[in-house]
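okkk here we go again. third time trying to get the copper (II) ion bound version out, last two times i messed up the smiles copy paste (missing a bracket lol). double checked this time i swear
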Amino acid sequence: MQTLKLEISGMSCGHCVKAVDKALAQVDGVTVQSVAVGEATVSVDPSRATSQQLAEAVADAGFQVTATH
Ligand SMILES: [Cu+2]
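finally!!
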């Protein structure tokens, strides 16, 4: 498992946190560790999920991943 920290723009409140949490949790191979306004930390199985898939899931929820590290 690999730990990734995502920087996310467009988040402003607890509803955003919940929406991002839900979006990331739905990606196969991802375990959400924590989500706060502007950032999320996840554990990823690199053979099942890519950072691109994480960015797409966040984008589908209406937010934007600005950096992954
Ligand atoms: Cu919000």
